[in-house]
Amino acid sequence: xxxxxxxxxxxxxxxxxxxxxxxxxxxxxxxxxxxxxxxxxxxxxxxxxxxxxxxxxxxxxxxxxxxxxxxxxxxxxxxxxxxxxxxxxxxxxxxxxxxxxxxxxxxxxxxxxxxxxxxxxxxxxxxxxxxxxxxxxxxxxxxxxxxxxxxxxxxxxxxxxxxxxxxxxxxxxxxxxxxxxxxxxxxxxxxxxx
Length: 194
Description:
Number of domains: 1
CATH class: Mainly Alpha
Strand order of the largest sheet: 1-2
CATH topology: Endonuclease III, domain 1
CATH architecture: Orthogonal Bundle
Order of helices and strands: HHHHHHHEHHEH
Distance between the termini: 27 Å
CATH superfamily: Hypothetical protein, domain 2
């Protein structure tokens, strides 16, 4: 893991795990359904918390939630939910744990209806990456018209913990929007791929 970033993005700070996440994942377009579901799970647990908190628990989340296997999670029964409530390695929020099971069920349904979840979720950006022109950290938005539409649609489909702010964080993580600062080396790398 790296110990410092040469990017213009300041939010990773000097934290090695955050820097690695910034340099290798954040903003990279994701079309793989399994990875998209992982981000749905992690971002829904992030509600009201910092991403750093979630990132440091990510590996334990992966273990606790069967490698983010939506088919397994959709079948979780009460005993499993209660066991997760006792797991100090994750965020022990009963509503978020139950929402993960609910979201897995609806994720699988949308996946079947649309051929893939990727086909469904990328429609909110017209299957293109939104290239923002952000000059400073203070300009990074918390929501957008696209995240509002995504939130409204997902809620209608039965998803939980998918407010517009969470949806926007998901869009950033999944590379549906490029919110790296224009001065960041990752902004240029990701922009070239389009």
